[in-house]
Amino acid sequence: MADKYTYEYPRPALTADCVIFGFDGNALNVLLIERGVEPYKGYWALPGGFMRMDETIDECARRELMEETQVKDIYIEQFRVFSSTNRDPRGRVVTVAFIALVRPEAHAVKGGDDARVAMWFNCEEIPPLAFDHEEILAAAREHLREVLRVRPVAFNLLNVAFTIDELRRVYEVINNTTYDRRNFTRKAMQTGTIVDADLPDIQEEPDICYNKSVCSEYDMEFELPAAPSRRRRLFKFSKKKNDSDEGSIKDLFNF
Questions:
Q1: CATH 3.90.79.10, the chain: domain bounds
Q2: What is the pLDDT of residues 214-236, one digit of tens each?
Q3: Which of 133, 186, 214, 225 is 20 to 30 A from 73 in CA distance terms?
């Protein structure tokens, strides 16, 4: 008689796939790996792999991401399960998809394990992907758009200090639209999620001689005065006092 905790039902394999988004200042990018093994050898794919018996699915996602791209110590979260019966030619495989937003310059990606190469791709210029990863990527982008309406996740793609144009561009590329700069700035300030960045004072430049007669008298080299530079106004993310108050975020892009 079989043990009472052993069942005769088929056991599908379980995998984790990671959709890692980054922003390069102009476009939304996604991290892909080139597969070095069959099936789909030579195809690009999302980083991921099979869950081991001694780990959770979250641990699996982090391990596979590290082994295949060298990206680690980032916050990832589950967003959907994909369980089509024919999604993997090796057999019945169910995958849990994870999503993360990072600053690409903070992570030196490098292919490893069964990934030949790891590389950032513009989300509008994606090559053919292995398995059902095109479907997963499309679902991740839609999920990101929905989350953006209620949570200020876009700040995870920016530096600590950023310009209003950089913030606006992030929202434009995620939502695939354009926003009027003046309206965007006004509404962004009204949400209370951004404040002026407190930056160290700029050091004064050393004395430079701009007067020819004075230069001659004191044997100094004459220089033409440089055109005055316009200092960019920088902002930073400000955590809202009441995290449950999502109204201002929801209304931000309701033009």
A1: 13-132
A2: 455 555 555 555 554 456 789 99
A3: 133
